[in-house]
Amino acid sequence: MKDIYILGIESSCDDTSAAVLRNGVLLSNVTASQAVHEAYGGVVPELASRAHQQNIVPVVDQALKRAGIEKEQLSAVAFTRGPGLMGSLLVGVSFAKGFARALGVPMIDVNHLQGHVLAHFIRESDDNHDQPHFPFLCLLVSGGNSQIVKVNAYNDMEILGQTIDDAAGEAIDKCSKVMGLGYPGGPIIDKLARQGNAEAYQFAKPQIKGYDYSFSGLKTSFLYSLRDWMKDDPDFVEHHKEDLAASLEKTIVDILMKKLKMAVKDTGIKEVAVAGGVSANNGLRQAYRDYAKRYGWKIFIPKFSYTTDNAAMIAITGYFKYLDGDFCSIDAPAFARMENK
Questions:
Q1: Torsion angle of alpha carbons 91, 153, 30, 78, nearest 10°?
Q2: Beta bridge partners of 138
Q3: Distances (CA, A) of 111 to 95, 134, 313, 337
Q4: By three-state DSSP, how is residue 140 classified?
Q5: pLDDT for 224-264, tens place per residue?
């Protein structure tokens, strides 16, 4: 049987990434990050797309070299079609189309969010089979999305609940910015929270029906509380940043886990995964372990390198679609926002 080599390309935001799989096993995963956005406190779309244009060729070249294959051995090219920043997506989509057409191989379009969920199926060796069984529940938490997903199959995912406003990662980044801690806020808050008292401060927890989330109220509560405290002590943040970070993190984790626990109880599904950039947060990971112990869940937590945007998750999704012959046409456009697929 001929080996199946899939090249995955991810360019939805500010990371340019390329990965190569052979028969579903990861051979390489190369990512170029963009430090240029730190000075602006957030991703600047125009700067991001320019950086992708500079990075895409060397990143793909390195991915092929580290995989030890020639481009002519590729069976297909998988790429993130959306959602994401349109300018960033267009760089990856355009490159993938040109590259696949030049090689005469099929193209596979991948939904970025579907890729995050399927990151749990990335294998680094043939004997690595510690993967969730269908159906399983996945809490997908990132800078742009907070969702509880029922995963019936690789190509059959049902969103049970999602944020109606800000995502969890977005709330963390904005609160970090208000505190003057820098960007991206996630890793900074995570590090400070390890040294703080999570019970020091109380912030609003929005009461939303069902499995949906809301984080805008928490963000407002945090902002107003900080404003009031700083009236009495202008250096309040500096004096209490560890406790503030720990209390913020605990509030967000509590909100996320309460809805997830409800979904597990209602569906009876006890295989529970977490995915997306915020799944790198140590507080959330510990909460997963605690809930697993308390409620008998079987949990799946991805390696740190597979939590943020990466091409390995695009490649594994592409591999599943390749096996099904699920290819896309040359005129498939990128999409910035979620579409029903």
A1: -40
A2: 149, 273
A3: 17, 19, 10, 11
A4: strand
A5: 999 999 999 999 999 999 999 999 999 999 999 999 999 99
Beta strand 76-82 pairing with 271-275: unpaired
pTM of the prediction? 0.94
What is the Cα–Cα distance from 274 to 320, expressed in whole angstroms? 20
Residues of the chain with CATH 3.30.420.40: 5-128+306-323, 136-304
Calculate the alpha carbon distances from 124 to 28, 153, 262 in Å: 9, 21, 33
CB-neighbour burial class of residue 338 (10 A; exposed 0-12, middle 13-18, buried 19+): middle
pLDDT digits (tens, 9 = 90+) for 89-124: 999 999 999 999 999 999 999 999 999 999 999 999
Tokens of 119: 């990151």
> What is the CATH topology of the domain spanning 5-128+306-323?
Nucleotidyltransferase; domain 5 (3.30.420)
Q: What is the pLDDT of residue 290?
A: 98
**Four-way CATH pick for 136-304: 3.30.1490.20, 3.90.700.10, 3.30.420.40, 3.40.250.10:** 3.30.420.40
The pLDDT score that the predictor gives to residue 137 is 98
pLDDT at 181 over 60: yes
Q: What is the DSSP string of 182-233?
A: -SSHHHHHHHHHTTS-TTS--------STT-B--HHHHHHHHHHHHHHHHH-
